[in-house]
Design a protein that fits this description.
The protein is α+β, with helices and mostly antiparallel strands. 34% of the residues lie in helices and 24% in strands. The protein is built from 12 helices and 14 strands. It has a 5-stranded antiparallel beta sheet. A 4-stranded antiparallel beta sheet has the order 11-12-13-14. The protein has a 3-stranded parallel beta sheet with strand order 1-3-2, with helices on both faces. β2, α2 and β3 form a beta-alpha-beta unit. The longest helix has 22 residues. 45% of the residues are buried. Bound molecules: flavin-adenine dinucleotide. Flavin-adenine dinucleotide binds next to β2, α2, α6, α7 and β10.
């Protein structure tokens, strides 16, 4: 049994916003794979829930007129992975969320819940950072858009107000067209484990496919929030593909992160992962973007 005070099944986005506004302590539940664990652990025991699970307009993946990919937040990980738009244009995101938990969790857990829990370890987060995703939040006063890099405020803290819902995750055409991506999750085992470190790279090559035009490097669990490594990105842009470039990117990334020691891994081990996974993810992303890697 779960210790829940009240459960309200919202019928629409305005209905959910009204229910949250009426109860300053109510908690949104979508798939419930984080919230129900917290209730059982006692951290949210006795809370009131506003369920958005049945709101159809919060579900699905769409292509907007200008080529922006729109992912509704209550879309499950499985649906994200297997959706034809994701598979065609941003397969890296489908691969990243296919590494969450096990099949049951991927069927119930949602991409919006993964972003809104504010966890640096969220498997969607570093890839969404590398895709420059934009979030749309809706509250009683209307909608606002926030860049994902500005959404995370600290461990488990985000820019979302209590009575705001995440209603859309967008990836703009300029951030995926011509790019190849790769995500590496390092965990102690392959399934049902949270990332010790997550590394995502998105890269666009020049027409000759021998130099980097635009590289984005992002990490989860390398800092209190997911982060981008802008110095490593800047040094890679415009450079020919070479082993020395990979080494430089890895070494520079280490100077930009601030991982901590936890029971999963020491800070030193995470720093070693940052250097190594930067190189591996960049190489694979280059291959996925149509380039060649000789090392
Ligand atoms: C066994 C197990 C294994 C797991 N493994 C992984 C893993 O490998 N990688 C990983 O990243 N995660 C993992 N998780 C965590 C979890 O599955 C994800 O974080 C999932 O994405 C949460 O989505 P949900 O819909 O279930 O969220 P919920 O539990 O419903 O909500 C999560 C949080 O987001 C808020 N929220 C949800 N939707 C919205 C919205 N639209 N607007 C505003 N706020 C919202 C809720 O209030 C809550 O704070 C695991 C969980 C379990 C139980």
């Amino acid at each position: 049994m779960y210790d829940i005070e009240k459960l309200y099944l919202a019928k629409s986005v305005p209905d959910a916003i009204a229910a949250l506004t009426a109860d300053p302590d109510a908690v949104i539940i979508s798939g419930g794979s984080d919230v129900l664990i917290k209730i059982r652990e006692g951290k949210l025991a006795g809370c009131s829930l506003v369920s958005i699970h049945g709101i159809r307009e919060l579900n699905g993946v769409f292509m907007e007129e200008d080529g922006t990919i729109l992912i509704r937040p209550a879309t499950s990980f499985s649906h994200v992975t297997y959706h034809p738009i994701i598979q065609k244009y941003i397969p890296v995101l489908g691969d990243a969320v296919d590494q969450v938990g096990g099949p049951q969790i991927r069927n119930i857990g949602t991409i919006g819940g993964n972003v809104c829990n504010g966890a640096t370890s969220a498997d969607s987060a570093s890839t969404l950072f590398a895709l420059n995703a934009q979030l749309e939040l809706r509250g009683p006063d209307g909608s606002r858009r926030v860049e994902i890099a500005d959404f995370y405020k600290g461990p488990g803290r985000t820019d979302r107000a209590h009575n705001e819902l995440l209603v859309a995750i967008r990836v703009r055409k300029k951030d995926y067209e011509g790019f190849g991506g790769h995500y590496i999750k390092y965990a102690q085992r392959n399934a049902m484990d949270i990332a010790t470190l997550g590394c995502a790279v998105n890269v666009k090559l020049n027409p000759a496919k021998d130099a980097i035009e635009d590289m984005r490097l992002a990490f989860g669990v390398a800092a209190p929030t997911p982060i981008r490594c802008h110095k490593a990105e800047a040094l890679a842009n415009g450079q020919k593909i070479s082993q020395s470039l990979f080494d430089e990117v890895g070494k520079t990334a280490v100077t930009e992160v601030s991982p901590r020691t936890s029971w999963r891994a020491s800070k030193e081990f995470r720093l070693q992962l940052v250097e190594e996974l930067s190189k591996r993810a960049l190489k694979q992303a280059i291959i996925n973007a149509g380039g060649a890697v000789n090392a």
